[in-house]
Amino acid sequence: MEIKTDNVQVQINEINQKLDLVLHYVNEQRLKSETIEDLVTDISIISKDAFSSAVEELDNRGIELNIDDIKLLAFKLMRNVNNFSQVMDMFESITDLLKDAGPIINEVGIDFTHKLHEFEQKGYFTFFKELSKIIDNIISSYPPEEVRGLADNIVIILDTVRNLTQPDMLNAINNAVSIFKNLETENIKEYSLWKVFRELNTPEMKRGIGFIMTFLKNLSNESINK
């Protein structure tokens, strides 16, 4: 009988432990329920105060809210939840892209700054500044009619410039300028008619006269053909 009594006592002790656990759980649930109720009560009070304040502020500003419009806005928001989600995904993708491209953009900005500094050191900005003055002088010196005439003849002008900048033409012009530069214009020798005739008979003068005659002849033919 003692063994049975001990078993009964053990079972009673286990039941008491389980009851203690159940009571502890029930007490925790009660405390949680009370906490939630208190939180709901506080939120309700805050919401009422916030709603009252919002209504009072809107009334002071003369703004009237239409419940139907608010419902319609809520329905639209619910219908476009997926669109908002896509926009947020796109925003996150752009943010990630900017984070990844940030170092590259920073490096490009540094290179661009260095290049601007290099241009400034070489005088590019000063050159364009002075060039703008040249353009201003051209614009102020020529009336619109002459500018239009320049535009009409720009092809001929460019052709002339292209021909003048050919190597043979540049060499000829450079030679002519060099010869003129080396002439002693202050001490020009006097030539009599007889000496002129004698000079005209030299090979150099004959070639010069031949060049002039050929040039004039070709110029005349070109004018006639046009």
List the helices and strands and how they pair.
Layout: H1 2-60, H2 67-79, H3 81-122, H4 124-141, H5 144-152, H6 154-164, H7 167-182, H8 193-200, H9 203-225
In short:
With 226 residues, this protein is mainly alpha-helical.
Report on this model:
- The chain is mainly alpha-helical.
- The protein has 4 domains: about 60 residues; about 80 residues, no CATH class; about 45 residues, no CATH class; about 40 residues.
- It is built from 9 helices and no strands.
- The relative contact order is 0.02.
Oligomer: single chain
Spans of at least 5 consecutive residues with low confidence: none
Biggest sheet, open or closed, and with what strands and sense?
A: none
Mean pLDDT across all residues, rounded? 78
The domain tally reads 4
Radius of gyration: 51 Å
Q: In percent, how much strand structure appears in the residues?
A: under 5%
**Roughly how much helix do the residues carry, as a percent range?**
over 70%
What's the tally of helices? 9
Order of secondary-structure elements: HHHHHHHHH
Structural class: mainly alpha
Using DSSP, what is the number of strands?
A: 0
Q: What is the end-to-end distance?
A: 146 Å
* Silhouette: rod-shaped
